[in-house]
Design brief:
Blueprint (H helix, E strand, L loop, with lengths): L7 H14 L2 H12 L3 E7 L2 E7 L3 E7 L7 E2 L8 H11 L5 H16 L7 H8 L10 H11 L10 H12 L9 H25 L6 H24 L3 H7 L1 H15 L9 H11 L4 H15 L6 H17 L3 H8 L11 H9 L3 H10 L9 H15 L6 H9 L5 H10 L3 H10 L9 H11 L4 H13 L3 H20 L3 H14 L4 H9 L5
Antiparallel strand pairs: 1-2, 2-3, 3-4
Helix pairs in contact: 1-4, 2-3, 2-4, 6-8, 7-8, 8-9, 8-11, 10-11, 11-12, 12-14, 13-14, 14-15, 16-17, 17-18, 20-21, 23-24, 24-26
Length: about 525
């Protein structure tokens, strides 16, 4: 089994050299040798790869990682032979599927060797440059180039999506290194868009696979990385100025983005976020915004639009109301949503929070109160954190407390922590009683804080937990009840209420007098005689 893995930059170098120096027939013979398992030991000696390949006899192929033209083989073939090619395919194995790479290389070699008939020198140069993206080409042509670079790439194991993400981010940006700034920035934006489209495609292609759970998680992680990269690329540019300099490219870009983002289909990509994020950056181009608004309204006017797509269009249309300052009009549209998704509106929460516009943050928090009940755990946690941080800038926390109470039991952990933090110990105890939480399930530090404040507040908590344990009617629960009684006795003693303790323990014994095992446990603890 091959253990040697050369660095990715060296593999990229070999890929280019193989494409430039090999004939398709010889390359395919090399793949057949690799496929039949004829490649033996492979070692790295300095900057050379030494491989033993079995043909009529055993040959030694040497691949130079510094200067491929110095590569050689011990066979009698004059030039780059099938044995060197076989060693190359073996080296490629950790990076992908060699059979797919073979097809890509054969296609590239065919293009290189067979230019169209009758073309002049200029045409030949253009044909040669078709293998690289052109600075003045439209975004759709860039995407065709991207697709060609990753033609045949498919998911073959759990980490293939990560491999694709890293490979695309490493290989595609370099083609625009010498371009003018505005075009290069837009090109980088399209690199991110391409990665997101491919990840969505991988997600759709593997949904029925028995490994779909792993692929779905991988897609979600890669999708989040792509979204972060896209934001990083956009933050580097002045979108309004870029649109003025490159209007045709931007018009094509926004049309393309609209096609991707407004389908309303299930996807690991948050297309609505990408769509609204970019349009929010184009505040100086009112006419362009109005044209997009008209297009959205035309789409919304169509009958028999699927509910999910209609919700997507409504959110997109409401976005233009919001960024133009018509928040009330935006909310009127959002009230028409069949299934509002809380995560779709964190874009606004995050914006107003970062801008320290607490009143507007509060407006969105209030609106999200209904849809947040169905949100996933991460979104719910983010919502609670936004609320808590916003509350610090308000005159009173009463509304925050009401919100947490309305979201119980889901908000239990956030609410209970806040009550302790603000030293509302009685409300904290009431919350534990209402949720039937045993003190044995609570942190000792929390109980200690309340005990130091007023030990009497803990009595009902221990009373309730003790009786619940006894009512389970088994020996283990009786032992648990005795543990609780020991702490309860200590609390009564601390409060100097020995008479009240005596009255309570005998009343408890009398109430459960028919439970012989429990009576035995009480006697062992010397609570009764």
């Amino acid at each position: 089994m091959l253990k040697l893995q050369i660095p990715k930059n060296r593999m990229n170098y070999l890929l280019k050299q193989i494409q430039n120096h090999y004939d398709a027939v010889i390359l395919e013979k090399g793949w057949e040798y690799y496929h039949k398992g004829r490649v033996g030991e492979i070692d790295l000696v300095g900057t050379n790869i030494h491989a033993l390949v079995k043909g009529d006899k055993l040959y030694e192929a040497v691949l130079s990682l510094e200067d491929f033209t110095q590569s050689e083989c011990s066979c009698t073939y004059d030039g780059f032979c099938k044995h060197i090619a076989a060693a190359f395919f073996s080296l490629y194995t950790p990076y992908g599927r060699p059979e797919l790479l073979l097809q890509q290389l054969k296609q590239a070699i065919h293009t290189r060797k067979k230019p169209a008939r009758g073309v002049n020198v200029t045409s030949e140069r253009k044909a040669g440059s078709a293998n690289v993206p052109l600075e003045d080409a439209m975004p759709m042509e860039w995407h065709r180039f991207f697709e060609g670079k990753f033609h045949g790439f498919s998911i073959s194991h759990q980490h293939s999506i990560e491999t694709f993400y890293e490979s695309a981010l490493e290989t595609l940006p370099g083609y625009a290194a010498s371009w003018r700034t505005t075009t290069k920035e837009l090109y980088m934006f399209h690199v991110a868009l391409f990665m997101m489209r491919k990840i969505e495609q991988f997600y759709q292609d593997t949904k029925s696979s028995y490994l779909s759970y792993y692929h779905e998680n991988g897609c979600k992680v890669a999708a989040k990385n792509c979204e972060d990269k896209l934001v990083e690329f956009v933050e580097r540019m002045d979108v309004n100025r870029s649109y003025t300099v490159e209007p045709k490219h931007w018009q094509a870009t926004m049309k393309m983005l609209g096609e991707f983002a407004l389908q309303g289909k299930e996807s690991p990509i948050d297309w609505l976020f990408v769509y609204r994020y970019i349009w929010w950056k184009m505040t100086a181009h009112k006419q362009v915004q109005q044209e997009e608004i008209g297009r959205l309204e035309q789409l919304l006017s169509k009958k028999e639009t699927p509910p999910r797509k209609k919700d997507t269009l409504l959110v997109a249309r409401a976005h233009f109301d919001i960024i133009q300052g018509n928040t009330d009009a935006g909310f009127e549209r959002l009230h028409q949503l069949a299934h509002p998704n809380a995560k779709d509106f964190f874009l606004y929460l995050n914006y107003y929070y970062n801008e320290r516009q607490w009143e507007m943050t509060l407006v969105w928090l209030r609106w999200l109160l209904t849809p947040i009940a169905l949100a996933n755990h991460d979104d719910f946690r983010a919502f609670c954190q936004y609320w808590l941080d916003t509350t610090k800038h308000l005159d009173s926390d009463s509304e925050w407390v009401q919100v947490m109470e309305s979201l119980l039991p889901r908000s239990y952990y956030y609410y209970t922590a806040y009550l302790l933090q603000t030293k509302r110990y009685r409300q904290w105890v009431d919350l534990q009683l209402a949720n039937r939480i045993s003190p044995l399930s609570l942190y000792a530090m929390e109980l200690r804080a309340i005990e130091d404040h007023d030990a009497g507040l803990l009595l009902p908590l221990y009373h309730q937990a003790t009786e619940r344990a006894v009512l389970e009617k088994n020996r283990a629960s009786y032992k648990t009840a005795v543990r609780l009684l020991k702490k309860l006795h200590a609390l009564y003693k601390q409060l100097d209420q020995a008479d009240r303790w005596e009255h309570y323990i005998y009343r408890l014994s009398d109430k459960f007098s028919r439970l012989r095992a429990f009576q035995e446990e009480l006697k062992k603890g010397k609570w009764i005689r």
